[in-house]
Specification:
mainly alpha, three-stranded antiparallel sheet, 3 strands, 145 residues
Length: 145
């Protein structure tokens, strides 16, 4: 009888431990479900969406600023390239641009004849002239003092 009582006590103890473990597992599952439920409330979902929107806005702003810097740098480089070949910069260095009445740039003295009107653009201003004579030579070298 004593063996049966001891065996019964052992079984009772094992049953209690198993029941306690099973209850703990159910409590843990319940806590996990509650946490999941709380994280999916409309308020929490709205907060998550707001945070996501703010993060996307920052990323977009940063990307746009980077693109703007790149484009600005490219534009600056193009402006420098254009200025290097600009007729206005040529004028600023002391040269002039002379055109016929039809607007074509004079490159050769044979392009005009006496009596033609020509326009000379300087760095500051325009001079209109009447051709009195033209001289053409293969190489024109002039020395001015």
């Amino acid at each position: 009888l004593q063996d049966h009582a001891q065996s019964l006590d052992l079984l009772d103890s094992r049953l209690r431990r198993a029941l306690h473990w099973h209850i703990q597992q159910r409590k843990n599952n319940l806590r996990e479900l509650q946490r999941t439920l709380l994280s999916n409330t409309p308020r929490q979902r709205l907060n998550n969406l707001r945070n996501n929107q703010a993060s996307l806005y920052l990323r977009l702003t940063s990307a746009l600023q980077g693109k703007l810097r790149d484009r600005s740098s490219t534009l600056d480089q193009l402006i420098r390239s254009l200025n290097a070949v600009s007729p206005l910069n040529t004028l600023a260095r002391g040269f002039s641009i002379t055109t016929r009445q039809d607007g074509r740039v004079l490159q050769n003295s044979n392009d005009v004849k006496p009596g033609d009107l020509i326009t000379t653009r300087l760095h500051e201003g325009i001079v209109e002239s009447k051709v009195q004579q033209n001289q053409h030579s293969e190489t024109v070298v002039s020395k001015e003092n």
